[in-house]
Design goal:
The structure holds 2 protein chains of 2 kinds.
Chain A (H helix, E strand, L loop, with lengths): L15 H22 L2 E2 L5 E2 L5 H6 L2 H33 L3 H15 L3 H11 L6 H7 L13 H26 L2 H9 L4 H12 L1 H16 L4 H5 L7 H11 L3 H31 L1
Antiparallel strand pairs in A: 1-2
Helix pairs in contact in A: 1-13, 3-7, 3-10, 4-7, 5-7, 7-10, 8-9, 10-13, 12-13
Chain B lengths: L1 H21 L4 H9 L1 E7 L2 H9 L1 H8 L2 E7 L4 H11 L7 E5 H8 L23 E3 L5 E16 L22 E4 L2 H4 L1 H9 L9 H12 L5 E5 L2 H10 L4 E5 H9 L4 E4 L6 E9 L6 H11 L2 H10 L15 H7 L12 H4 L1 H13 L1
Helix pairs in contact in B: 8-9
Classes of the chains: A mainly alpha, B alpha/beta.
C-alpha cells in the first residue's frame, strides 16, 4: 500500500478529534499536575500558587529513591513475567480451532471485568492460611500444615501478573494471528523442530510487538497501588501507594504531584531508552 | 428543656398529618416546606446508610426541612473538594461530617462558617472535646459522631482477652497484628505515649516524639498488615488469619452480633476516641437550616437513638442521656479515653508523616 503525503489542511482533519482528546484528557491534566507540583504547601491547610522546588527536594532522598527503584523493578518484573507466559500461550492459542480461540478470548475478557479490589481480595483468600490453597496441598499430602503465603513479594507479583495477563494476551493476539504461516512452514521444511522454529523464527519476527507489549504492561503495572497494599508488606508498597497517601490522606497535593511527575518522567525515559535500543538493533 | 423541644416537634407532626389529609388545600404549605432543604455530607457506606434510615426522615418530619444526603469519602479528599468548591462559591454539601484534623485544616482558610451556639439548646451539655473552636474562640464545629478504636482480638486464638495496649509489643505476638497504616488515623503515637510515657503530653516536644517513634519501631516485627481500608483487616480478624489489632468498636460489635468469634476490649490505658464534627461550608447559604439540624442532632434523645441504632458514642454528658447502663457500656467506657493529639497533624504534619512512612516502609 502506498502512503499519500497529506497535502492540504483538509487531509489533516481526521487528526483533529484524537488531537483534541489528547489535549483535553492528557495535556491539560498533566500540565495542571506539573503546575501544582511547584506550588507551596501549607501543612496546616492547603497550598498556595507559587514557584518553589521544595516538593522535588523532599523527594530526592535515598528513601524515595529506594521506593522508586522498587516500583520500577516490580513493574519490569511483571512485564517480563506476563510476556514470558502470554507469548507462548497466545502462540499456541492461535493454532487451535476458531471455536476454542473464541472461548478462551471470552474467558480472558471476563477476567478484565474484575476490579483490582476483587482480584486483591480473591488472592488474599487464596494465599491465606485459614482458607488458602495450602489447605488443598495438606489434603493431598504435599504439605504438613497450611501456611500463609502472604504478605510476601511473591503474592504481590502473582496478583499483578494475574491482573495484567489478559491485557498482554489481547495485545499479542492480533499480531500472532496475522503471522505469515509460510515462515513456520519454511523453518519446518528446513528441519527445525517446532520449539526451535518458535524461538528462532516466530520470536524474532515479532520482536517489535514484544517490545511494545512489554512497555504497555510495564506502564500498566507501574500504576498499581491496591495489590501491593493487600498482598504485600509496607516494603512492597509502590510509589503509587505513597502518592495516594499524600494526595488523599495528607492533602499534600504539591508533594503528591511532584512524585507523580517524577514517576511519569522516569517511565517515559525508560520507554524512550527501550525504543532507542530497539531501533538500533533493527538498523543492524 | 425537653418539653421545649417536644412542643414544636409534635405541633409540626400534627400539622403534617393535617396537611396530608387536607390534600389540595395544603399545597402551598407543602411547597414552602420543600423550599427548605439542606445538603448534608456523611461518610459513605455504613454511616450514610444508617443516617438515611434512622435520622434524616425523622428530622424532615420534625422540622419540615428536606435533607439530601451526600456520601463523602474518608481521608482528606472531601476537605479538598469543599475548599476548591468554596473558592468558586459552591457548596457540594452545606453541612459535612469532618474529622478533627480536617476541621483544623479548614480553619486556616476560614472554610467553616462560625456557628451561633445560642441556637443550640444543649450546647452546655456537650463534652468540651466535641466543640471545635477557632483560635479566637468562634465555634467552627460541633461534635457529630464519636467512635472508638479499641484493642480487638479473635476469641479462638486468644482465649483470654488482652488488657493493655502493651500486648502489641509482646514478643509472643510476632506477625499477628493488624494496625492502621497512617499516623493520623491509627493514633499509635498517642497509644505509645499513654502506655509507656505517662500520657500524650509527652508528644509536646520533638524529643518526646522521637522517643515514641523509637518505641513504636519495636512493634514492627509483630505487624502482619498495615491497613488503610477497614475491610482488609476485618475479614482477616474474623477468620483468625490476623488475630489481633486495632479496630473500630462499633463495627466489631456488629461482627460479634453476627456470631463471629471476635471481641473488642477497652484496654486499661483507655480506648482511642476519635470523632467527627458538623461543619458548615462558608459557601453555604443555608445557615438557618444548618443550625436547626445541629440543634436537632445534639438533643439527648437523638444522641440516644444514634447510640442504639448506629452504635456511635454520645457527644453529650452522660447525665443528660436516656441510655441504660448496658446501652451506654456497649458504645462507651468509663475508662478515660486516649484523645488523639489532632494539633500535631496540622502543626507537624509533614515531619510526622515522613518519619512514620520511613518507620513502617523502611
Amino acid at each position: 500500500m502506498r502512503r499519500e503525503v497529506p497535502k492540504s489542511f483538509a487531509d489533516y482533519t481526521p487528526l483533529l478529534f484524537p488531537g483534541l482528546m489528547l489535549v483535553v484528557f492528557f495535556v491539560v491534566p498533566f500540565s495542571t499536575m506539573i503546575a501544582v507540583s511547584f506550588f507551596k504547601r501549607n501543612p496546616a491547610g492547603f497550598y498556595t500558587p507559587d514557584f518553589v522546588v521544595d516538593n522535588y527536594a523532599r523527594f530526592l532522598t535515598t528513601f524515595f529513591a529506594g521506593v522508586l527503584g522498587f516500583s520500577l523493578m516490580l513493574a519490569v518484573l511483571v512485564a517480563v513475567c506476563c510476556v514470558c507466559i502470554a507469548f507462548p500461550f497466545t502462540y499456541l492459542l492461535t493454532k487451535r480451532s476458531r471455536r476454542v480461540q473464541t472461548l478462551w478470548l471470552v474467558g480472558l475478557l471476563s477476567v478484565l471485568s474484575l476490579s483490582e479490589v476483587i482480584i486483591g481480595f480473591a488472592w488474599s483468600t487464596l494465599f491465606s492460611q485459614t482458607a488458602g490453597i495450602t489447605n488443598l496441598f495438606v489434603a493431598l499430602g504435599l504439605m504438613d500444615k497450611p501456611v500463609a503465603l502472604l504478605p510476601t513479594f511473591g503474592a504481590v507479583l502473582a496478583g499483578m501478573v494475574y491482573q495484567a495477563l489478559p491485557y498482554t494476551i489481547l495485545v499479542l493476539y492480533p499480531a500472532l494471528v496475522r503471522l505469515d504461516p509460510t515462515l513456520l512452514e519454511a523453518a519446518r521444511t528446513l528441519g527445525a523442530s517446532p520449539v526451535k522454529a518458535f524461538f528462532n523464527v516466530v520470536t524474532p519476527a515479532l520482536r517489535n510487538t514484544i517490545v511494545a507489549t512489554l512497555i504497555m504492561v510495564f506502564v500498566f503495572a507501574l500504576g498499581s497501588y491496591l495489590l501491593p497494599q493487600i498482598l504485600g508488606r509496607p516494603r512492597h508498597w509502590t510509589l503509587s501507594v505513597l502518592i495516594t497517601d499524600q494526595a488523599i490522606y495528607q492533602s499534600n497535593m504539591p508533594f503528591g504531584a511532584a512524585m507523580a511527575v517524577f514517576l511519569v518522567l522516569i517511565s517515559l525515559a525508560l520507554v524512550g531508552l527501550m525504543l532507542l535500543v530497539g531501533r538500533k538493533e533493527n538498523a543492524l | 428543656m425537653n418539653r421545649l423541644i417536644a412542643t414544636p416537634i409534635s405541633r409540626r407532626g400534627v400539622l403534617g398529618a393535617g396537611l396530608a389529609t387536607a390534600g389540595v388545600l395544603a399545597m402551598p404549605s407543602i411547597l414552602r416546606a420543600q423550599d427548605k432543604s439542606l445538603k448534608v455530607g456523611v461518610y459513605g457506606g455504613y454511616f450514610k446508610k444508617s443516617f438515611d434510615e434512622h435520622v434524616f426522615p425523622d428530622f424532615t418530619k420534625a422540622t419540615g426541612i428536606a435533607v439530601e444526603s451526600v456520601a463523602e469519602p474518608t481521608g482528606e479528599a472531601w476537605l479538598v473538594q469543599l475548599e476548591q468548591a468554596a473558592k468558586a462559591g459552591q457548596a457540594p454539601a452545606d453541612l459535612s461530617m469532618m474529622s478533627q484534623t480536617s476541621t483544623l485544616k479548614g480553619q486556616s482558610t476560614e472554610l467553616w462558617t462560625p456557628l451561633d451556639t445560642s441556637r443550640f439548646k444543649h450546647y452546655g451539655d456537650l463534652l468540651p472535646r466535641f466543640i471545635n473552636k477557632y483560635p479566637d474562640g468562634r465555634v467552627a464545629g460541633i461534635g457529630a459522631v464519636a467512635w472508638w478504636i479499641t484493642l480487638v482480638s479473635n476469641t479462638d486464638v486468644y482465649k483470654e482477652a488482652p488488657t493493655s495496649w502493651a500486648a502489641f509489643w509482646d514478643k509472643a505476638n510476632e506477625d499477628k497484628l493488624g494496625l492502621l497504616a497512617l499516623a493520623s488515623n491509627s493514633f499509635l503515637l498517642e497509644v505509645t505515649a499513654k502506655t509507656f510515657m505517662g500520657g500524650t503530653n509527652a508528644l509536646d516536644t520533638e524529643e518526646g516524639l522521637n522517643k515514641a517513634f523509637e518505641k513504636l519501631a519495636e512493634v514492627k516485627p509483630n505487624v502482619r498488615l498495615w491497613y488503610r481500608d477497614e475491610a482488609q483487616f476485618e475479614q482477616a480478624l474474623k477468620s483468625g488469619e490476623i488475630p489481633m489489632g486495632q479496630y473500630y468498636h462499633d463495627v466489631t460489635g456488629l461482627a460479634i452480633a453476627d456470631g463471629f468469634h471476635v471481641r473488642t476490649t477497652f484496654p486499661k490505658e483507655g480506648g482511642i476516641q476519635d470523632s467527627g464534627n458538623w461543619v458548615l461550608s462558608r459557601a453555604s447559604t443555608k445557615v438557618d437550616e444548618a443550625h436547626v439540624f445541629i440543634d436537632y442532632m445534639s438533643q439527648p434523645s437523638m444522641q440516644g437513638v444514634m447510640s442504639r441504632k448506629v452504635g456511635t458514642t454520645p457527644t453529650l454528658k452522660k447525665e443528660v442521656l436516656d441510655l441504660t447502663p448496658a446501652e451506654f457500656a456497649s458504645v462507651s467506657s468509663e475508662i478515660e479515653p486516649i484523645i488523639p493529639r489532632y494539633d500535631l497533624y496540622t502543626s507537624k504534619a509533614d515531619w510526622i508523616n515522613q518519619k512514620w512512612t520511613e518507620l513502617i516502609v523502611g
